[in-house]
Amino acid sequence: MTDILDELQWRGSVALTTDETALREALASGPVTVYCGFDPTAPSLHFGNLVQLVVLRRFQRAGHRVICLVGGSTGLVGDPRPTSERVLKTKEEAAANVARIKALVLPFLDFEGTDARCAHAAILVDNLDWTAPMSALDFLRDIGKHFRVNQMIRKEAVARRLESQEGISYTEFSYQLLQALDFLELYRAHGCTLQTGGSDQWGNLTAGVDLIHKVEGVSAHALATPLLTDSSGAKFGKSEGNAVWLSADSTSPYAFYQYFLNVEDASVIELLKVLTDLDRGEIDELERLTQDEPFRRAGQRRLAAEVCTLVHGPAQTAAVQAASEAIFGRGDLAALDEATLADATAELPGGRVPVGASVVDALVATGLVDSRNAARRVLAEGGVSVNNTKVTDPERVLGDADFLHGRVALVRRGRKAQAAAFRED
């Protein structure tokens, strides 16, 4: 596909646009400058941010100019949540998060102008640079006068908060003015005329479009991506109540890979379209395999490999693939590096076991059986392995060599039940 909007629509990455016809004309007439903002509400970006980074990446590779904005000022205020007031970050916390997020976004876009697929180098900005010098009076006179409160309170999150007993503070209520100011500033400094974001940001996106039209008398555009949900309606990127983060110290590469490896069949093709660069032919073939041979999980394996490589790089992906194979009994556990082994076994149930403990004790300590008699029975049935080697002797003990990298042994009961026996010193 040569048309970026057609590609985004085929990939299911367009939920709303301000004026599709006008946007198509603008994109066809030459390079457009497009931006997306990321607030430092946490030390890492998450699944939802990944969707936006991939959209920026597609725009850049289609020949357009992209700006990645990190919200040093908007992060100090916080976008209103529908349920309750955000706890404000200190200036020091926000600054530390900004630095982390700037480092996280660098691999996704070409900021140096060295990628032959990208005609223009990406730009990285912090909105604190133009918001901090502005006085409150200037902000109210130059920006606030263009907004009507009756329109602002229609925003879903604001409306829900106004209906609650808690209400909403003026701090959070002013957030959409700050985001609109960002769009205006980027239009003035870089000729930016398109902002992207999630569909839950639509009110903030259109606020910037309206501000540019009122102040500069020109048309700007907004494009919102859909919020991705599974077949039950649950938002992707949540795992047992925790976000799937992009930084390795928040969600380990192994856990990240496993998350995508375990995506349901009903959602895997949608995610392949949104998050990977696979073309229509490759995705059609994976869709066929998912329908005809779901037990092979071909779509999930490709999705996990592609997205993990995008976020963590090919070397880390190869390491977690080897760990996944080894953990599930098809690879060499001893060949895994210490960090990858630690990440992989951290995802398993486990217990602490001293050197010299019997395998019977290890089975009980890790919760694989509920008694020593049950442990002896499964050993006699040949259903136990230590580090992928079958064990049948009930007198077998765990020695130093069994604790890989001196810290953990993998104990398995049957084909699927497995646990980590952590060395107790």
Number of helices: 20
Instruction: Tell how many strands the DSSP assignment holds.
Output: 13
Binned strand content: 5-15%
How many domains in all? 3
Label the CATH architecture of the largest domain.
Answer: 3-Layer(aba) Sandwich
Q: State the CATH topology of the largest domain.
A: Rossmann fold
Structure in words:
The protein is an alpha/beta fold and 425 residues long. It has three domains: 4-225, 3-Layer(aba) Sandwich (Rossmann fold), CATH 3.40.50; 238-331, Tyrosyl-Transfer RNA Synthetase (Orthogonal Bundle); 348-424, RNA-binding S4 domain (Structural Genomics Hypothetical 15.5 Kd Protein In mrcA-pckA Intergenic Region, Chain A, Roll). 46% of the residues lie in helices and 14% in strands. The protein is built from 20 helices and 13 strands. The strands form three sheets. A six-stranded mixed β-sheet has the order 1-6-5-2-3-4, with helices on both faces. A five-stranded mixed β-sheet has the order 9-13-12-10-11, with helices on both faces. Strand 12 (408-413) and strand 13 (417-424) form a beta hairpin. Helix 14 runs parallel beside helix 16, helix 17 crosses helix 18 (338-346) and helix 19 crosses helix 20. It is elongated, with a radius of gyration of 26 Å. The mean pLDDT is 93.
